[in-house]
């Protein structure tokens, strides 16, 4: 249950990343389309672009960390699922009831995540 909760929270990283990318886009648009003014700009296009580049790099690093957490949580869920399948198999071995999937198939799906 803990791994499921962590994975749900981690999946919200996509929304945070989208918001940060929108902010990045808006900042670059502002740098390119500064309206003429009698007041000198406090931050010219070069300063804004530098700031946006730093924010984009930070967004990339944060997204990589979030993806690592998501993979860890999903790996824990897959391991728990494999354990449940194994336990279920051990309960029905004597009854010879075929299960729709095996722990081997769960392990196969775990390999695909890489």
Report what the structure shows.
The protein has 114 residues and is mostly helical. Helices cover 77% and strands 0% of the residues. It has 4 helices and no strands. Helix 1 packs antiparallel against helix 3. The longest helix is centred in the middle third of the chain and has 48 residues. It is rod-shaped, with a radius of gyration of 24 Å.
C-alpha Rg (nearest Å): 24 Å
Low-confidence stretches: none
Helix count from the secondary structure assignment: 4
Largest sheet: none
The average pLDDT is: 76
> What is the structural class?
mainly alpha
Shape field: rod-shaped
Keywords:
single chain, 114 residues, mainly alpha, 4 helices, 77% helix
Summarize the structure.
The chain has 114 residues and is mainly alpha-helical. It is built from four helices and no strands.
Q: Mind sketching the topology for me?
A:
Blueprint: H1 2-11, H2 13-32, H3 45-92, H4 103-112
Helix pairs in contact: 1-3, 2-3, 3-4
